[in-house]
Amino acid sequence: MDAVLNGRTALVTGGTSGIGRAVVRRFVDEGAHVIVTGRRQAQLDEVAAEFGDAVTAVRADASDPADVTTLFEVVAARGSGLDAVHANAGLGEFKPLADVTAADIDAVFATNVRGTTLTVQGAVPFLNEGAAIVITGSTAGSGTEKNFGLYGASKAAVATLTRTWAAELAPRRIRINTIIPGPTETPGLKGLAPGNEDGLLAAIAAGLPFRRVLRPEEVAAAVLFLVSSESSGMTGSEVFVDGGASIA
Question: Among residues 20, 62, 189, 218, which one has the fewest Cβ atoms lying within 10 Å of its Cβ?
Fold first, then answer.
């Protein structure tokens, strides 16, 4: 059986660690050439070393218009367009309302909302027929996680944008959906509690039905589904891969 993405070209932003890295690995395993972005050159070098010619690594901050322009110059130079896009770059931190600063607001919304918007906007001219986009959302977008309001609000905004873009892109038969991961064992999640990573994961797992956090590979499997022809009837949808967090 042919690989799902055999001969296709994909773009994964924020693809150097966590969920993004797992998606890159799965896309490569399924036959794609993957253009991978990240802000840190050392991590990009690791990705390039792991996947070799199957990837093109581009240092780019999704929130920086100049970097986004450079990224899509690379896409244009390859000349193969894009068949799949995973807009995954994002950031957030635990911070109660009383401690939130204007700089915090700007940083979170710049990456999570502006960066996602610029990525999708830049990708659209290069999307091939039948292409699909997946946006990384979050269960925090429900607004029920204490001290995580900025991140949750940014992800709620992205979910709304995705539904709007689905309607705008439908005439071109371009599909766009949101993946909603629950707590996933990634450097980003562990970084919310420096020095107490294991304690944080254990505390989160205790409140989940399966008593464990997700693995990045579990989320990546759902992203693959959303860019494959198996999900051809889906656009503007939210797919929860949250380990039952929504029913806990």
Answer: 218
1 pLDDT above the threshold of 60:
no
Contact 85/130 with Cβ under 8 angstroms? no
Give the C-alpha separation, 168 to 173, whole Å: 10
Q: Enter the pTM of the model.
A: 0.91
The structural domains of the chain, with segments of one domain joined by +, span 9-188+216-240
Instruction: Render pLDDT for 10-26 as a digit per residue (tens, 0 to 9).
Output: 999 999 989 999 999 99
Q: What are the CA-CA distances from residue 235 to residues 34, 135, 169 (Å)?
A: 22, 11, 10
pLDDT at residue 186, rounded to an integer: 66
- Write down the architecture of domain 9-188+216-240 according to CATH: 3-Layer(aba) Sandwich (3.40)
Give, as one character, the DSSP assignment of residue 30: T
- Between CA 39 and CA 46, with CA 44 as vertex, the angle to 5 degrees is 145
Any catalytic annotation for residue 151?
yes
Q: Which residues share a beta bridge with 238? A: 178
Mean pLDDT computed over 190-197: 62
pLDDT in tens, 83-106: 999 999 988 888 899 999 999 999
pLDDT at 215: 87
Q: Which residues contact 207 (CB under 8 A, 6 or more apart)?
A: 248
Catalytic residue among 151, 213, 239, 241: 151
Q: Which residue has the higher pLDDT, 111 or 247?
A: 111
Structure tokens at 240: 């929860």
Q: How many CB atoms lie within 10 A of CB 51?
A: 20
Instruction: Check residue 140 and report its DSSP letter.
Output: G
